[in-house]
Amino acid sequence: MTGNLGVHRFRAVSDCTALIAAFFGDKKEDKVRLRLKYRKPTTFPCNAGSRFSFTALVWTLVGLLLVFHLVSICHKDNIHHGEIQSRTSGFLRRPIYHELEVIEEVKNINIPPPRGKRSSRAPKRKHHKRFSPIIEEFLDEDSQLRHVFFPNRKNSIDPIGMTGNDSSYYFPGRVWLDTDGNPIQAHGGGILHDEGSETYYWYGEYKEGPTYRAHKKGAARVDIIGVGCYSSKDLWTWKNEGIVLAAEELNATHDLHKSNVLERPKVVHNEKTGKYVMWMHIDDANYTKASAGVAVSDRPTGPFQYLGSKRPHGCDSRDMTVFKDDDGSAYIVYSSENNSVLHMGPLTENYLDVEDVMKRVLIGQHREAPALFKYRGTYYMITSGCTGWAPNEALAHAAESVMGPWETLGNPCVGANKVFRQTTFFAQSTFVFPIPGHPGLFIFMADRWNPSNLRDSRYVWLPLIVAGPPDQPLEFGFGFPLWSRVSIYWHRKWRLPSGWSTLR
User: Fold this and answer.
1) Which residues contact 273 (CB under 8 A, 6 or more apart)?
2) pLDDT for the residue 81
3) Which of 55-59, 104-108, 462-466 shows the lowest mean pLDDT across its residues?
């Protein structure tokens, strides 16, 4: 391949020289030659004193540089496509993914005519910003389209009662029941795979309480009850393991007092210490504390001991997550500087604190709800915009190092319709979980918030697939990246590939 590249470069240089010669070979050529014939010798034996020869030399060098640059770009492009093909060919040859990659369309939603005043319990608009009509309908408790966003409980996902064709299927947006027949309460959460017991643990906010506002301009909220935990062997049937980190009822100065805020708990296991470590967003009712809290337990089902909170790296911290890498190192990622920037930094060896190192990424882009994952050496991340409880467009990002720089790949949502894609299927990212035995296949976990009744918020789980070339060029470099496209496929109902749980 190197020899062919040299031949192509030689031919390109020859063509370029011919074009330059043709360009300068006009009627004045004879006069120039006559003038050069009687010119006195110079110190240069190659007619360097001629204006024509000097100009030709300059243009020849420019042409050579252009040709070399073009050949280099083509060579890099071939390498890029070969790399993409090698990274994705193994994935694309597996027919079991074809069902998940089918693009399922959804008819456009017709907005009903107004019926009077907006519900008094509908979320107040921040800064008088008007949302699109469909978002207004989503936020309005009395909307005629309520059943579209929040289906009736009679259509619940019931792993115990479901049989036949609906068994093992996910239905995004429906009420999801646990093995006791109660709605699962694990919002803003994440999943831990405990390899020792081959069990999956789902942790999240337990929002079983009335929705209210702490003050007139406050955001919709529920009192802290604690962090709920559910266990499963198949990622579909979930058993309630109870509250593993409970609220503080009496001490009003405690971080976990019921009047405060506990959001987005994530748990990682530290193999060196044997501890299960939980990180979470801790705040007061006015969202001015903006801190990250940490708790620890000897068992995945708790109870977790709360150790306290801090502003990591001395910065405000709101929506956050924790990511554990293949080598056992763990990182915290949080929205900071009034949600305008994401901060990333490693945790200490025992996962109980942050190191001094920190990187600012996606500066000025106002992203929150980060969900990190890794595939074949590349780090990926899904983020949300900052629009309160209202859904917005997700973005996918990628990097060769968890500390960046991070490139934005665009909106990963595929299928449904334009409104669904621009609102992340009316949901917000919280976690991305890899399916064992199926490289490139993940579960995208998101929350469809119900701000008028937060305990009735729903879960939107969808297949996320990493495969195919990226859609747009690099932001911080030239050309296209070597990583693959991230796609989240909409499905009204879907299930994991048959036999996945036996593949390790």
Assistant:
1) 350, 351
2) 42
3) 55-59
